[in-house]
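Run log, item B.
One chain of 152 residues. Sequence copied directly from the ordering sheet:
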Amino acid sequence: MPLLRRLVSKGLLSAADLPALEAAIGTSGKPPHEVLIDKSAVKENDLFEVLAEEFGLERVDLAGKEVGEAVLSLVPAKLVHRRQVMPIGRDEHILIVAVSNPYDMYGLDEIASITRLEVRPVLASQKEISRLIKRSEEHTSELQSRQYLVCR
């Protein structure tokens, strides 16, 4: 498995751990990086740096990131939750989407189909994406409450 071998070559995993990890990945039904995180086989930050390098993705920090309503409205909330992705920006015909699973190309294709925009994925941890989704939903809910009060 290329990801495991790359982690070994960088000294982040022991070659002796490969057979057990490959077996766990093969039987889990989860993406390889999620199994490695679940098993605490490698530090999450180190793992995401290697994934970013492997997939040619930019690694982003979503702490304190605010996403505008215009960008949020492009991707249905149901899709955001189902795929654990988050639109974080737009540059003309390109939608920038934070993903925690770079193996999930179907989710990106679905977003491109819905938005009719080119999708550029960037890599963030699932925890960061979940936090940003929650913050964005709270912000949207607050705005809707304000609009309701103003319209009354």
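Observations after the first pass:
- The first strand starts at residue 85 and ends at 91.
- The chain has a mean pLDDT of 89.
Flagged for discussion on Thursday.
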